[in-house]
Amino acid sequence: MELNHRPQRYKRCALTSELCEHLSLIYYQKYINKSRGHICFFYGFVVYLSNMNLRVEQLINIAKRKMKHSNDPVHDLDHVTRVVKRVKEFIADMDLSHDEKQAVILAAWWHDVARSITKNPSIIWMSIVDDNISAFMLWMKSIRCGLFGKTVGLSTKILVCKSFGTGALLTRLLLRKKHRILVNLLDDADTLDMLNSERVSKMLIMIENSRTYKMGYRVVVSWCLKSREFKLRTEKARKILVEMIRKFILWIKQKEIFDWHIKQFGKKWVDRALRDANQFLKSITLKTCS
Ligand SMILES: [Fe+2]
């Protein structure tokens, strides 16, 4: 079904984009030719901007549609929507241009689209390659639909630079100093969502049916609580993390959740995890408040 609708959808995208570009050019030329004044230039610029907004909006809608069909319950539309919300919260009072804000929001919508291409996304290899695949998918889609532009280009770079392993090097090579913060913002928003109780609840169901997920959860929780994984790079994210760890400890202490963890991992592991969580909370509270 999906494949049959694709050509039509692409045509629709391309047609809308072409039409917008054509209209903006006509308006731009009309106003510029009429008086060549500053006001007319301003109108032309507004039309050009609204065209770019429309392109970004179209690409966001495509990402939403793809994430609706994600087969990975912890990397689904809900997760992406929360990450986008967090990114918007981070950038609200930051000194960023309209293009930069749009680019990081678009990257947030697309950052897990790679998870939608397979029925069984691997917990291991998908975590390593997902950002690069998502970047490639965004780039391809924007070209095929005629929606590519400066903002989309920056979004693609943000995703490539967020990738596991090579991200740090690529950030230095591909992004200007002032744009590097955009990668940190998206990375922090994504990392913080690891502690979202709604998301962890979904993971518990997967753990019951998969030994790999059980092992993965155990390793990730132990690792996170020893504060190695949560290398948040923005001050705002660190403050939010304190609140999220508090909520996470309360969530894990609920009788039903607590008993489930004891059944799956044993009392010794749960006691150690809670002790590590409390110590981590203390240390990050001290760092954040000092
Ligand atoms: Fe994510």
Question: Could you please describe the fold and organization of this structure?
Answer:
It is a single chain. The protein is an all-alpha fold and 290 residues long. It folds into 2 domains: 1-190, Hypothetical protein af1432 (Orthogonal Bundle), CATH 1.10.3210; 196-290. Helix content is 78%, strand content 0%. Helix 12 (255-265) packs across helix 13 (267-289). The longest helix is centred in the N-terminal third of the chain and has 34 residues, at 2-35. The protein is globular and about 55 Å long. It binds fe (ii) ion. Fe (ii) ion is lined by residues 75, 79, 83, 111-112, 190. Fe (ii) ion (FE2) is lined by residues 75, 79, 83, 111-112, 190.
- Which structural class do the helices and strands define? mainly alpha
Count helical runs: 13
- Major sheet, described briefly? none
Shape: globular
Radius of gyration: 22 Å
Total number of β-strand segments?
0
CATH architectural arrangement of the largest domain: Orthogonal Bundle
Give the H and E element order: HHHHHHHHHHHHH
Number of domains: 2
Q: Roughly what percent helix?
A: over 70%
Model regions low in confidence, pLDDT < 50 over at least 5 residues: 1-7, 9-25
Give the strand content: under 5%
Indicate the CATH topology of the largest domain. Hypothetical protein af1432
CATH classification, class level of the largest domain? Mainly Alpha
Give the mean pLDDT. Answer: 79
Write the layout of secondary structure elements.
Blueprint: H1 2-35, H2 38-68, H3 77-91, H4 98-110, H5 125-144, H6 150-161, H7 167-174, H8 180-192, H9 197-209, H10 211-225, H11 235-252, H12 255-265, H13 267-289
Helix pairs in contact: 1-2, 2-4, 3-4, 3-8, 4-6, 4-8, 5-6, 6-7, 8-11, 9-10, 11-13, 12-13
The structure holds fe (ii) ion.
